[in-house]
Amino acid sequence: MNQSRKMLMLTLAAVMVFTFAMAATANAKMVKQVDNFIMFVDQSGSMAMTHDGLGEKKIEMAVKTMRAMNQAIPDLDYNSAVFMFAPFDTVCPPKAYNKATVDAAITKINTDFEIFNRNTPMGNGLADVAPVVASMSGKTALVIFTDGKSNIGADPVGVAQELHQTYGDNLCVHVVSFADTPAGDTIINGIRNAFPCSVVADAGTLMDQAAMDQYAEDVFYDVVADPVAVPVVTPMAKEVVSFNLNFGFDKYEITDEMVPVLEQAKMILEEDTSAMYEVSGYTDSTGAEMYNQGLSERRANSVVKWMTDNGVDASRLEAKGYGETNPKYDNATKEGRRLNRRVEIQTK
């Protein structure tokens, strides 16, 4: 470390922490994948039955899942609607998306109806919602909440295939499955297979908030970031070179966007070639603890390899993984989990 930097540390009564964050961290923005979305819930008799595996009435789980999904969708300028089928009914007609309006509409859905005398014309329901799709401009996501049981009317898989032929890439049908029978699974998978863009999910999986957040991102929006490295210097009680490399979920490879940040960190390491450093990898809290430990080690090793490949003496660096321990940000939020997927370098 050069003399002027040492004097600055003494003046501040603390050594410096160098936080190199991608500009994407500060400037990341959400961009719509679709212009419209329709929540389409099955209200047939089988949905009033208790799910064999989850022990809760399926229509009640569907309403809870819809409300949670609504909260996970960002406030972008979508058009939205809520419909039911078996029988077909309008809950909230197409209009500019408003989170509170959609939530109020979902809460009005009746979950206390009779099992008997409510057939499931699922194919007819898909045909009935087609004019709604036709009335919307741009790309539309149709999210169906169903157990897949169909016992009357048109073949739902055939209707789904016709919808794909009609609307192409302007329509993507996703099915949140409440199936508890092989027949229900078969129909749901047939509908999904008609749309290559379909994102797979079921009621049990989406009970996890992290999974719901990921599903919302996969279906409704993208995160676009400006990959420009911006160094920010803040005082801290220990000399640490900390930087957020924006590792993707379950990723550890160094990408081209990370190189400017790594080059900045390398410059600091080269100021004192006698200093020894620990390279520490971390993860968010999603997934099993043992798996996250290995993932954090792979992230640390990736940074060490880049440094040594670019001229830093390997004897000065020690890679360590800390898994999901020592989070700096709130793992209960999507942004917090993203920021916790980080690597730090500090003097030994």
Produce the secondary structure layout.
Blueprint: H1 3-12, E1 16-22, H2 23-27, E2 29-32, E3 36-42, H3 58-72, E4 79-85, E5 89-96, H4 99-107, H5 122-135, E6 140-146, H6 156-167, E7 171-177, H7 182-193, E8 201-202, H8 209-220, E9 221-224, E10 229-235, E11 240-244, H9 259-269, E12 277-281, H10 289-309, E13 317-321, H11 334-340, E14 343-347
Parallel strand pairs: 1-11, 3-4, 3-6, 6-7, 7-8, 12-13
Antiparallel strand pairs: 1-10, 2-9, 4-5, 11-14, 12-14
Helix pairs in contact: 3-4, 5-6, 6-7
Main features:
six-stranded mixed sheet; elongated; Rossmann fold; 60s Ribosomal Protein L30, Chain: A; 348 residues
CATH architectural category of the largest domain = 3-Layer(aba) Sandwich
Strand percentage: 15-25%
Number of domains: 2
Q: Which stretches are low in confidence, meaning pLDDT under 50 for 5 or more residues running?
A: 1-26, 233-238
Shape: elongated
Would you identify the CATH H-level superfamily of the largest domain? von Willebrand factor, type A domain
SSE string, helix = H, strand = E?
Answer: HEHEEHEEHHEHEHEHEEEHEHEHE
Distance between the termini: 14 Å
> Which fold name fills CATH's third level, the topology of the largest domain?
Rossmann fold
Number of helices: 11
Radius of gyration: 25 Å
Total DSSP E strands: 14
Counting helices, strands and paired strands, the structural category is alpha/beta
